Amino acid sequence: MKIEYRQGDLFATDIKYILHGCNSKGVMGSGVAKAVRNIYPDAYDAYTIWCSKGFRLGTSLLVHTKDKTIINAVTQQSYGRVSIQTSNNPVRHVSYDAVSDIFKQLETLIPSSVIAMPKIGSALGGGDWSVLSAIIESECKTIKPVVYTG
Predict the structure, then answer these.
(1) The CATH number of domain 4-148 is 3.40.50.2000
(2) Model pLDDT, residue 88
(3) Which residues pair with 70 in a beta bridge?
């Protein structure tokens, strides 16, 4: 399904589901993940417990809060700044396969839903948004992805 782009604050959305990418280390120290940690501490707490029990890249944890369901999507094994990225030596933490797996799973878990998200994996994750958006549009058969661009 085609991605809808919206300007505005991801966390002010009226959409029930908010998806963000996170790493497998139990750290939400920057970017959208840090905002999730600050705004939805229950989602962060559930994530850290989940990380301590082990899971695999390409899975997600849905945490129901008072007004939203936060989808902690494990798209990265590692994390770090991509400011050292060059065209000859790209730094990419996001796994394209993991992003694909997550959206396939969500099609089963929450079919026919609308999901709000940032440009998952393209900022601190270091992924190419043209590749990521193609994956998302390919995997979303009934789910409507809405990307907030700030």
Answers:
(1) no
(2) 52
(3) 18, 63
pLDDT band with cut points at 50, 70 and 90 for residue 69: very high
In the DSSP assignment, the letter for residue 2 is P
For residue 122, the model assigns a pLDDT of 86
- Output the CA–CA distances (angstroms, integers) from residue 122 to 23, 60, 65, 128, in the order listed: 14, 18, 26, 6
Separation in Å, CA 52 to CA 49, 56, 95: 5, 12, 21
CA-to-CA distance for 55 and 14, rounded, in angstroms? 30
What pLDDT, on the 0 to 100 scale, is given for residue 84? 47
* CA–CA distance, 91 with 29 (Å, rounded to integer): 18
Specify the pTM: 0.88
Cα separation, 33 vs 61, in Å, equals 13
* Cα 58 from Cα 83, distance rounded (Å): 25
Kindly state the average pLDDT of the residues 40-59: 88
Question: Nearest to residue 93, comparing CAs of 121, 112, 68, 117?
Answer: 121
- Domain residue ranges of the chain, discontinuous segments joined by +: 4-148
75-123-144 Cα angle (round to 5): 60
